[in-house]
């Protein structure tokens, strides 16, 4: 018959077995929350629960046993369970200290951290660890992640719910602490006396692990320097080891090791943690806690310290969020040692500093590279920006190995880690300048996807270090911001950025280029009259301060000439473009020359010389094919212009063939969703329609409109243009709903651009055209007359669109 202590342990194990899917931590928390028949609540520790179930110890208070019974489903005979408990207590030497009880079937050595306040279960990670520990081909489980994400707490939970006969927890920061832990384990196993040589006893313990058939689990917590546990890794078929570390070096990654990455809380976990931890203070609303979790990037250590800081100081969440938003505040002051985290012996700033110091032992320039990361986007820095031709590869990999960054194709870092690093950088101005130089270097030859990533990084750099990018004038990368937005069809955003930069510009060149960008964006938004007036002043300023042949002046002149053309002054614009090309002295493939040549061809065509326009566009494409190659983005863009004039000369099928070549090339070079590709796809569908292939054209408009909405958004100008032409050509094909679709679209376009915008007027003209085709002629004539009045007022009577509407009206009225 079993002894009373074993009988009680078996009874308790049966109760515990009712909820096998629950961890000891979960059962202990549930038991602690149970109100007993007496009304009393008894705290139950997860580690103690594991010891009771294993027969290692007996609880001092039966109410703790009753709480566990009630938490696992209740008990019909508490009196019998009480008698088992009493017998077990008598057998264990009632009233004596538990550590003097005879050793039962288990050996537990070492003291894991206590459960953190408001501990999160993290069931997905817990299952991953448990599955790994049960896998036949796994001998070691590696919990790796940045400092302060809860690796030790996760390992503690594993330790408490483990059913191995020998459990050993070892602090592994130093070699001596590992030797001491192993020696203690050996003494506990064999009853040896303390005082013997730790290293010899550690060797005996490691040898026992290799040869025993007794199930064991050894936890090595917080391995920092891989040289410290060298030669001391546990091994043996009967057991498993669990390692927590911020490292992810090759030395740790072996075939029999299962890696479980431990990262930040998800948003729900973070908000739930704060809600539980701050339940003692009802001032904080759930919405505020969600905002705080988001501001801290769901970083567990930061959440823990922030909660302690709020409790200790009495500050509210909103006040603390204001402190976080103030970039003058140092991380060390936002998360001070005076408000420590639960069971974590360091602060956010200290954790980052320690990791940086360790990385610097692997690569001397680790902090230099991390400084660049710290002022760029946390969501992803193109690796070429940081590698600098491969010279920084070792440093970048050292940062990856220490979990300060994640380098897999691109480089990511937590925003709070970045902020802590910025506090460590000795010369912020030099770091900002170096980051800006690296972005500018890569942007010069970037594809559209890379350019989009560089734009995000430049925006972050401007926000966190903008004041350092104006020494001696505006850094060129800042101008890239507005130009990139303009190039992808976001003129309003481009104007806003240029206006913000202009507010602090003082150097004449900076003023000229930024005023040029503001005016260009204003014109692209439809206010061509204001754009032309502004550019007239900018051009005069540039010629006076910089000279007629300066590149900034030439760009101002190019945009000035373009808006002369846009406002209907075609002959004057043609002369300006011709003079500009002659004055610049730039290579034939220079972007300014290409744009001017393309616009010169456009002027020829708008002036009625469509053959001259076609010849000029053909000459430009020929030059670019020679200088840049047939698949260069500039060449393909010029091909888009050529397609129009081929069509305007009367050869619509040849125009379609030209646009097909441009679309195929752009899809291959810059991607199907790039802005240039969308323009080419639109023009291809348009000329298919004019060539009479309405079914194919409508299908292409429909397909491209859906792509544009996904890539750019439903209210983006390109998307709206597609939707307008899709509705129009459907109406031409006989769809009676097209008129109403254009009416609905007009309301959206007016909401986006305003009622006088040329896009609105174009939509109204198309609707009038469909009304006329549907036989509603009087209504169509009235609408087009009203549109023509607005076009003349907004664009001028000589504007191509105004003339087109006037010719259409004349055709309807027979004038």
The level of helicity is 55-70%
The count of DSSP E runs of length 2 or more, i.e. the number of strands, is 9
Count the helices. How many?
38
Radius of gyration: 36 Å
Proportion of strand residues: 5-15%
The backbone outline, from C-alpha atoms, is elongated
Mean pLDDT: 89
Which structural class fits the helix and strand makeup? Answer: mainly alpha
Biggest β-sheet description:
6 strands, parallel
Biggest sheet strand line-up: 1-3-4-5-2-6
What is the CA-CA span between the terminal residues? Answer: 117 Å
The low-pLDDT segments are: 93-104
InterPro entries: NB-ARC, NLR-like, P-loop_NTPase, TPR-like_helical_dom_sf
Domain NB-ARC: 128-270
Organism: Saccharothrix yanglingensis
Protein name: NB-ARC domain-containing protein
Compact overview of the structure:
Pfam families: NB-ARC, TPR_12. It comes from Saccharothrix yanglingensis. 63% of the residues lie in helices and 5% in strands.
